[in-house]
Amino acid sequence: MFTRSRKVFFSVAIAAATALTTSHMAPAQAASKNVTLEFWNYWDGGNGQALAGLVKEFNSKNPGITVKPVTFPWGDLLPKLQASIASGTTPALAATDIAWMANLHASGKLQDLGAALGGVKAASSDIYPQLLTYSIYKGKLQSLPASTNNLALFYNKDLFRKAGLNPNKPPKTWDEMRAAALAISKLGGGTQGMEIYTGVGEGLTWQFQPYLWQIGAGFLNKTNTAPTFNTEKGRKALQFLVDIINVDRSATAGQWGAFDKGQAGMRIDGSWMVGGYRENAPFEFGTTTLPIPTGGVPATNMGGEQIMSFKGSADKNAAAIKFIKWFTSANIQARWDAKTNFMPIRASVASHPTMLKHMVDEPGLKAFVDQQKYAQARPAITTYPAISDAFSKALEPAFYGKVSVAEALAAADAAVRKVLP
Amino acid sequence: MRSANAYKAYALIAPAFLLFLIFNAYPLIWSLYISFTSWDGLNPVKEFIGFDNYRLLFENHEFIVSIKVTLIYVFFVTILSTILGFIVALNLQKIKFSRFYRTLYFSPVVTATVAAGVVWKLIFDPFSGVINKSLGAFNVMGPNWLSDTRFALPAVIIVGIWKRIGFAMVVFAAGLASLPTSTYEAAALDGADGIKAIRFITIPLLKPIFLVVFITGIIDSIQVFDHIFIMTNGGPMGSTQVLSMLLYNQGFRLFHLGTASAIGWLILLGVLLLGTVQRLLAKKVIKNA
Amino acid sequence: MPRKIFVSASKHFLLLGIGFFVALPFLWMITTSLKPPKMAFTSPYLLPTHFHWQNYLNAWTDAPFARYYFNSIFVAIFITIGQVITSILAAYAFDRFDFKFKKTIWVIFLSTLMIPLPLLVIPTYQIVQQLGLSNSLGALIIPRLWTAFGIFLMRQYFHSIPRDLDDAARMDGAGTLTLVFRIIVPIAKPAVATVALFAFLFSWNDFLWPLIALNSPENFTVPLGIANFTGKYGTRWTMLMAATVTATIPAVIGFLLVQKSLIRGLAAGGVNE
């Protein structure tokens, strides 16, 4: 009788052992026939499907290489990369937010793309220079832009009409935007004139920076060694938003998400949202370039992802390079952008017939394309996440009316200086 | 059993102990070491900086606020979920549909905290959320729950209680089931029944159970993260930033692995302290029970 | 008689009242999961009027949920078995034996319950990688094969089992393992059910560690699959709710089935110190 339970025990143990190790064995077996490259990213939903389609094409055109996209939620990709770097189990390919690049470059684990692609100049030929600030580290090209996007003004045409505003003449200046928000908020029923992002974190910083650039206050100086926002102009920019919230009451501090539900008139958001709004929004929406202050200059924030390869075995390195070259080529990028509503990373993509046709099909994108040349890059330094965090924490109370604009910016200035090396 | 059989005991403990060494002890010590460095999680170099991380934490206003927030959260969630769980368990004794009720109350315990956080966030939405819409029906202007520093913490506390009632209920149900009916019969003869019986018989007899629910409640709520992360991400203005969120942000968003590890160790030490105090109290309570 | 009805009615009233608060999110979840996407934020919110089953189909096909389910169940079963066995063995030792360092080890074990999870994630990942387990289901299972909580519960229950049984068994020539698994454990079934349930629940809802430890989608567990519906590029509410409903149901059914054993397990000796 005891032997029966022994048998059961051993069969379970063997089954377990097999299961535990097989999932780990599979890639090793595949290696002898095929090079498998894991490609970590956070492109989900439609973007994920677009990527899957392109990857399938690459795989079929490149027998011997199998690229395997693996998607993680945006907030979790970075911890995963940290863990993989710490334990030496990095993926061959990854695409990450440009804001993380400085730290990833500093890890020393990225392949030198310039060396492999015939020199930095050749590899980055007509790529927009601002994007390359995230790709080059100590003279070496360690990543390439995989996508880019910027921020523009989304507005609810239905609410515009209801408030007596012309839905085809969206605001072009700060004052016009403020007036439109006020008019819409008067519709009542909890309708917000506009949404302003006031939560702690990069979201706040990245949404506020265009205001600073437009008015001429700037964020950090050219050498990224000191903050420049604690000036009269900076205060004007912050006061503008604070007044919309606390004086006009056409926006609410801490509120974000009403626009998706058709309950806010305007919001600043990225090009990637265009497709989603077209499919899911219960209202007619429009986009326009960011309104600028009188006497200010057009400016918007640049987002996007960079693609990179972590150093591995020789054949994996070579295969990864091949994929990166293919993925960043004009033809593929044009098709990629057409499916995802990301912006062109290089001039040859902007003028590509596929892209031109897409612009016609997706009118919501026009504003973003027009703004691309005014898109500014955030500081590509390793301390940026801490700077952004400190900056947003200092500004948040101002939006709630708990501290004055002057106090908030002074506190932000001091906090940022503390973090800067 | 004499200690001659000690080696048998060690053999029995061995599997658990081995796993403990590899997956708890070693990582714990490693993180202690990291707490004394300024490591950013990616750089191969880990620079030793002594007690700086700890010192800076105590000088950091955000850290102090976080301790306060965590204590408030733990206090209310533990106490209220315990009391509510007790009341529910009491009412579920010998009642129709008890199986249905028990399953209903326990469902939050088995729901993925991520999904629960998302749904509660929408329920608390100031304009389209169910709560404010219902208040609106009574002509009451509901507050901006998750963006108001006065209401955000109560909101996440409510969700914490929601998640825990079922567990407390089950434990109390077990305790109630093991109470001797004879005591109640004797007391009823003396005219003590209903609420009196509860006050003078049930509660005193269940003191050890209250303690267990309490302790597990505290241990559990100190680690809370998921639903707060989804609902408020620690805001507004840090009013819901519990310690585990601070840890996560420092480690995984700001690349301050050293600081994050220091926070983790301080949490551990804090809980150990609380745990010791509780155990001393427990001994007293049982002695007097 | 009327008094009895009044008492009973007020009990139900109270239970339903609190019950509504408890059920609120589920009503919202189910209702939303059945709405067509554009209607996610329009009335009604708590009772379904649309039955857009397409959401469930989409949620299941958008990602290989069947695979995620299999992984979650596989992992949960092994973790449950592991925790039950290690708890039984260790608990027996703590309850029936005296040995050097007994108190110390017990305290150290219990304090592992107080370690904040994010603290251990990165070093555990390094170990798992060194053991050659990274990105496998083994990485999810092996670190979790023991839990101090299980040992604690089991020890409490064993305490109430008279030692005469042990003596009688030994006199019949039974070895320790036979004694534990063939005599003690059958009596301790409620405690075993309790430990098993907690192990299963813990494993089922676990998110952070599987996220860090797994890279290949074919190894993902259900919580990871659900998380993928809330991306940087917008949340797909209706599908998220459909996925969540399907993820929660098995656990709820599981509880429905083991309720009685669970409560008995915690009752007799389980929680009385």
Largest interface comes to: B-C, 92 and 89 residues
CATH topology of the largest domain in chain A, by name, is: D-Maltodextrin-Binding Protein, domain 2
Structural category of chain A:
alpha/beta
Q: What is the count of DSSP helices of chain B, taking H or I runs of 4+ residues?
A: 13
CATH architecture of the largest domain in chain A: 3-Layer(aba) Sandwich
Largest sheet descriptor of chain A: 9 strands, mixed
What would you call the quaternary organization?
A: heterotrimer
* Helix-strand topology string of chain A: HEHEHEHHHHEEEHHEHHEHEEHHHHHEHH
Extract low-pLDDT stretches of chain A. Answer: 1-32
Overall pLDDT of chain A, averaged? 87
CATH architecture of chain B: Orthogonal Bundle
What this model shows, in words?
The complex is a heterotrimer of chains A (421), B (289) and C (273). With 421 residues, chain A is α/β, with parallel strands linked by helices. Chain A is built from 19 helices and eleven strands. In chain A, strands 1, 2, 3, 6, 7, 8, 9, 10 and 11 form a nine-stranded mixed sheet that branches. Chain A is globular, with a radius of gyration of 24 Å. Residues 1-32 of chain A have low confidence and may be disordered. Chain B has 13 helices and no strands. The mean pLDDT of chain B is 85. Chain B has helices at residues 6-34, 52-59, 61-91, 98-110, 113-123, 130-137, 152-177, 181-189, 195-205, 207-222, 226-231, 243-253, 257-288. Chain B has one domain: MetI-like fold (Orthogonal Bundle), CATH 1.10.3720.10. By secondary structure, chain B is mainly α. Chain C folds into two domains: 1-52, no CATH class; 57-267, Orthogonal Bundle (MetI-like fold), CATH 1.10.3720.10. Chain C is built from 13 helices and two strands, in the order H-H-H-H-H-H-H-H-H-H-H-H-E-E-H. The longest helix of chain C is centred in the first third of the chain and has 32 residues, at 2-33. Chains in contact: A-B, A-C, B-C. The interface between A and C is large, with 44 and 43 residues. Chain B: Pfam families: BPD_transp_1.
